[in-house]
Predict the 3D structure of the following.
Amino acid sequence: MVDLSFSIIFFYTSSTVLLVLGVILLSIIVPKNLMLYNYRIARRTMAAAYLLLAVIKISECLFLNVDGFDNTLYKTIVLAIAFSQAFLFTFALITLINIKFFTRRKVLCECGIIGGFILACAAVKIFLPEKYFDYGFYLLAICYVFMLLRYTHIFRYEYRHFTSEIDNYFSNTETERLKWINSAFYFSLTIGVVALLTCFFPHIEVDIGFSLCWIIYYIVFSIQFINYAFYFQTIENALENENTDSEQNTGALQQDVEHPLINTQLLQTWIDEKKFTQTSITIKDVVEALSTNRTYLSTYINQNEQKTFHEWINTLRIKEAKRLIAGNPELKLWQIAERVGYTDGKYFSVLFKKETGKTPSEYKETGFI
């Protein structure tokens, strides 16, 4: 049995850590750059999540008393915290990948839902007789599960669209570098599910163990989130919509080869000159070389090559790598990787095997079969 005084000290300590992290997130200096607008909104949202949780946990400590652990109060607080944190984390992560998703109306609507849910939790605790408390709690738990499923569906859709945009802009490992956003959501979802499960084992020992897990996660997440500021502006370039493109008639994208929107001869010259071997090339670079725009080029590649820009560039690079392996046996594999545009030999090997079914060394040893 955990001593009550120890649990109070632990909860106050964890709340202090959250307060410090929340203040750091609020006070971190972010350049007043339009491209970082998404990040500033997400950062404030995460700070609100941390500070709100800290305040609620401190309030929980105040209700702990020597008469024992109040199970019904514990369930009420955990459910209220979990619901608000689910929204704040989802809002922050989606804001990083799609600033246009949340409008003022949507935010006010979601805040109204959260406020109503928290008031319902309070009403169940205060007004329902203890023998009916479980019925009210189960109803609220069902609503909470429904909201988790809803947020998961929304995030999955937005993340798939986001990765598609990234793959149609960058040629290298940016998608891999951004997987932390997807991982962060599912870690948060796991914590939300576990939080609900702890309500069915409302003991102070369970609360301490669970709190230790999420406080570690919150610390790691805040570090990752702060570091993301240095990379966010690069990603925003990929998500930036070109106003001139949006004004084009979408039917024009379906024109046939007699009236091409892409100069295929110029594109073939670009390929023949092996411009795709430039390190970290983006679709913007190709657009400038072909004097076209991003929407037309992306659509052309998607429809004619049945690939994203990322896949198309890497297909060209692996084809060139195979030619170099066959024609230049004296070259080391890392030299070949560099010549076709890769700075990471392991990443080159992974893509080569994905394209050919063999690693570069296996391909070389088997006589290029």
